[in-house]
């Protein structure tokens, strides 16, 4: 946070956790992230086994990696 480099949390292997526990964990993390200036307060949740969230993560990564115009 001191360097103000943005970061985002990705929870992987979400297929291994019960939905209720995952929801509680994600809510707890989001609450903590709101206090961090550099944190992106949205959590990505993925499972390579089921494919859930993988497309969302690819979309976010493509936006971050896209060339930015020079000023």
What can you tell me about this protein's structure?
By secondary structure, this protein is mostly helical. Helices cover 38% and strands 6% of the residues. It has helices at 19-33, 54-65; strands spanning 10-11, 44-45. Strands 1-2 form a two-stranded parallel ribbon.
Summarize the entry for a quick read.
The protein is mainly α.
Oligomer: single chain
Radius of gyration: 14 Å
Instruction: Please give the largest β-sheet.
Output: 2 strands, parallel
Helix coverage percent: 25-40%
Mean pLDDT across every amino acid position? 89
Note the overall shape: flat
Give start-end ranges of low-pLDDT stretches.
Answer: none
Total of helices = 2
- The fraction of residues in strands falls at 5-15%
What pattern of helices and strands is seen along the backbone? EHEH
Could you give the order of strands across the largest sheet? 1-2
Total number of beta strands = 2
Structural class estimated from helices and strands = mainly alpha
Distance between the termini: 25 Å
């Amino acid at each position: 946070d001191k360097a103000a480099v943005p970061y985002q949390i990705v929870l992987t292997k979400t297929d291994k956790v019960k939905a209720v526990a995952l929801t509680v964990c994600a809510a707890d993390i989001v609450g903590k992230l709101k206090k961090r200036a550099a944190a992106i307060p949205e959590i990505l949740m993925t499972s390579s086994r089921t494919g859930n969230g993988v497309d969302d993560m690819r979309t976010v990564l493509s936006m971050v990696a896209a060339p930015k115009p020079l000023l």
